[in-house]
Design brief:
CATH class of the largest domain: Alpha Beta
Radius of gyration: 21 Å
Mean pLDDT: 95
Number of domains: 2
Structural class: alpha+beta
Distance between the termini: 24 Å
Order of helices and strands: EHEHEEEHEHHEEHEEEEEEEEEHEEEH
CATH topology of the largest domain: FAD/NAD(P)-binding domain
Helix content: 25-40%
Number of strands: 20
CATH architecture of the largest domain: 3-Layer(bba) Sandwich
Bound molecules: flavin-adenine dinucleotide
Number of helices: 8
Strand content: 25-35%
Length: 362
């Protein structure tokens, strides 16, 4: 692609926004077209960046390098938009049982993982001040990790949109896949305009996309809850226990979640399952002493590709048609790295890593 040709970015979620900024940094012209829906996966995301996650208590893939890149990237955005979007944050993870504690003892043998850990309550009665037991119910101990943080996705998306809109490179609209034509010798044509490339960053809806409906999506609907828990005022760390987390916001307001629904009716992406929400409520009531008052539930679909693959790259038969998807539950951490990787491939011809290259994962 020639440097002066414009890129059409479809979708302004965490994927499309990171891609737009990466092109901006390189001085490559682009236009982002987004439907401007009130609720999307990126708009409701808690934006947590967590070093040690999941039932297996693993350190996130390439955590330190991706986190460093994400932090530098968000700081760059903050300078350009004049608003704070990323906040470092300590996080407490409680062990669900003794087996989890034993597993974590083994995990701590990895020096890179151990570097993220500030203190551990091994459940032997020694008070390491992990949590105030008048606020949280601690049964099997746990640990505090640093090095993570959270992206205020709402502010990041809004401020980025404003920045691009003021410069004429953001538009509200819908780009239907069947309205995009890759014309040999001309470029990508959409609504009478010609672009050097189109990159689809549409989240889970790519499952119905005429160009990419063969990608094996296994997306999962999920809900996040705005709640009040005045007894947690003063606590600023995220507390995570057995599949749920509570993110205090300082003044007694909290966000909590998530639910995880791999089976859902695609006609209702914004309606959380009552059973899953009831289970989340039980878990939270078992965690927060005195319970919480639910205020609002928000639901959307995380774009997940089979085997939790983040995928970027070109359509197998169309060089000018790109794809950036599969951020799963880790969009805040991975989008800045993935967007740079894709742009370096697109503009400099750098090879994509096999693990994330769409063409190697057909
Ligand atoms: C409950 C829940 C909690 C989460 N918590 C976290 C968390 O703590 N940390 C974290 O990192 N991630 C979290 N995530 C995951 C995170 O939200 C995703 O990784 C990320 O939002 C995916 O971004 P995306 O840009 O790929 O997709 P999306 O956010 O879905 O963005 C796609 C965009 O494309 C637009 N679009 C679609 N089709 C078209 C079209 N034809 N034309 C124009 N525009 C179109 C949509 O309107 C949308 O704006 C969570 C997700 C959920 C559901």
């Amino acid at each position: 692609m020639r440097a002066e040709e414009r890129v059409l970015i479809v979708g302004q979620g965490l994927a499309g926004t990171a891609l737009a900024w990466r092109l901006w940094e390189r001085g490559v012209p682009f236009v982002v077209v987004d439907r401007d829906e009130a609720v999307t996966c990126s708009k409701i995301a808690a934006g947590l960046v967590t070093p040690i996650t999941g039932m297996r208590l693993n350190l996130n893939w390439r955590f330190e390098s991706q986190r460093d890149e994400a932090v530098a990237f968000y700081e760059g955005v903050e300078q350009r938009v004049g608003e704070r979007v990323y906040f470092p944050l300590k996080q407490v993870r409680l062990f669900r049982d003794e087996a989890a504690r034993a597993l974590f003892r083994r995990r701590m043998e990895d020096p890179v993982l151990a570097r993220q850990v500030v203190r551990v309550d091994w459940g032997d009665g020694a008070d390491v001040g992990l949590l105030d037991e008048r606020q949280f119910c601690v049964r099997h101990g746990g640990f505090e990790q640093s090095g993570g943080g959270y992206l205020d996705a709402e502010v990041y998306l809004r401020a980025s949109r404003r920045f691009f809109e003021e410069r004429g490179c953001w538009r509200m609209g819908e780009v239907r896949g069947d309205a995009v034509v890759d014309e040999v010798g001309v470029g990508v044509r959409w609504e009478g305009e010609v672009f050097g490339a189109v990159i689809f960053c549409q989240g889970w809806e790519a499952v119905r996309h005429p160009w990419f409906d063969w990608v094996p999506f296994q997306s999962a609907r999920g809900s996040i809850i705005q709640a009040r828990a005045s007894q947690l005022a003063g606590e600023e760390r995220v507390v995570n226990s057995s599949g749920c987390w509570v993110l205090p916001r300082g003044d007694g307001e909290v966000r909590l979640g998530p639910t995880y629904e791999p089976e859902f009716d695609a006609r209702f992406p914004h309606e959380g399952s009552p059973e899953k929400l009831a289970r989340l409520r039980e878990r939270v009531d078992g965690l927060v002493v005195g319970g919480v008052e639910w205020l609002q539930v928000q639901t959307a679909v995380r774009p997940i590709v089979k085997r939790a693959k983040l995928l970027v790259g070109r359509h197998p038969a169309h060089e000018r048609v790109g794809f950036f998807n599969g951020l799963g539950s880790k969009g805040a951490l991975r989008a800045p790295w993935a967007a740079r990787h894709l742009v370096e491939h697109w503009m400099d011809g750098k090879e994509l890593e096999v693990e994330v290259d769409l063409r190697h994962n057909l």
